[in-house]
Amino acid sequence: RKMSIRTPPRLLELAGRSLLRDEALAISTLEELPTELFPPLFMEAFSRRHCEALKLMVQAWPFLRLPLGSLMKRPCPETFQAVLDGLDALLTHGVRLSFWMVWSEAMARRCLPNAMMNRKPVQDCPRMRGQQPLTVFIDLCLKNRTLDEYFTCLFLWVKQREGLVHLCCKKLKMLGMLLHNIRNILKTVSLDCIQEVEVNCNWTLPVLAEFTPYLGQMRNLRKLVLSDIDSRYISPEQKKEFVTQFTSQFLKLCYLQKLYMNSVSFLEGHLDQLLSCLKTSLNILAITNCVLLESDLKHLSKYPSIGQLKTLDLSGTRLANFSLVPLQVLLEKVAATLEYLDLDDCGIVDSQVNAILPALSRCFELTTFSFRGNPISMATLENLLCHTIRLNNLCLELYPAPRESYDVRGIVCRSRFAQLGAELMGRVRALREPERILFCTDYCPQCGNRSLYDLEVDRCCC
């Protein structure tokens, strides 16, 4: 039987464990404790629930930041309260704290012992002007109807120390919580600190409209992800009013760079209203699984905010029966910057493809191109491949299986797909040397997966 090899504990960890065996001794030696021993000793005290030692270590903490993100994966009420008690002891005695409590995984990774030895402050919070003695960094992911006991305890603790503690949330995900409960949280968090927001709560458009005043206060927002907003069962007049309330908030978002809209039904006929309110040039625009009008597609190419895109994702948004000339104009506009283009499952057919080929062939910065799920023929697919010859930066290409791979019932014939895949790979190799190229079928109704033909293995994979 194979033996698992575990990494032996570092000398500093062993020293911390040894010291904590006598908690009274550990407490009495804190003032003489070498700085480099604090992080491993703190983690050891936290995991082994030495609450009194924790409380005093917080008061003697020598670094600018106190990272709790990874430690709070397995918290217990006693150790968490010990940390808060340690902070209270300092705040009560009027000590102006020189560190930040970090409850954020991304920031915690930057607070490892070596990084913490650097005493130069890093201004990660737009609100930090030295008014509050303590800043608590936190990333919030609201999955449940109510907060867990630790978040509830933290928010109550912060609220009771208003003016002394600044709660900085840079990333906020709302994945199921009721808006009423979200409101209470947003009243505690400094909204202009938030830089990334994801909303995926199956809201209706009227509920989204209730949230929009908070969105407008997130003036440092860089990234917005909005999913599953239902605008059915409301009158056209109400829809127009609610859309105006939502889009007008973008006039206040002067730093927005990434916008993701997935299954957002109110965009149909209103995309120009949103685009006209964008104050910055976007790097990423994703409009996925949405319903658009042909006029919406035309508006995409007209606004300056879209002219420097690095990522354009329209996957799942049906473009069948549309003229793709507006998409051609857009691709021409962003050809110098576009790196990622996803047109999966847009329903694009043979007669539409030619419109975008000249512009596509000039997107020289493109590294990823995905065109799966579009019902095009072998001849059109070969023509498409010819127009990507000069795109030397392409690292990943995903194309649909040619229409000839399917029988009259729309079911893929695997032997035919393998044959056509081999032919396409041979012609690709004759033209250029691609890094990674895959030909993919539609989703299987039984297993929900796509079959693919992979150049690297030169065969069909299911």
UniProtKB/TrEMBL annotation:
Coiled-coil parts of chain: none
Molecular-function GO terms, alphabetical: ubiquitin-like ligase-substrate adaptor activity
PANTHER family, alphabetized: PRAME FAMILY MEMBER 20, SIMILAR TO PREFERENTIALLY EXPRESSED ANTIGEN IN MELANOMA-LIKE 3
Organism of this sequence: Gorilla gorilla gorilla (Western lowland gorilla)
This protein's name: PRAME family member 20
GO CC list: Cul2-RING ubiquitin ligase complex; cytoplasm
Alphabetized UniProt keyword annotations: Leucine-rich repeat, Repeat
GO biological process: negative regulation of apoptotic process; negative regulation of cell differentiation; negative regulation of DNA-templated transcription; positive regulation of cell population proliferation; proteasome-mediated ubiquitin-dependent protein catabolic process
Family: Belongs to the PRAME family.
InterPro entries: LRR_dom_sf (IPR032675), LRRC14/PRAME (IPR050694), PRAME (IPR026271)
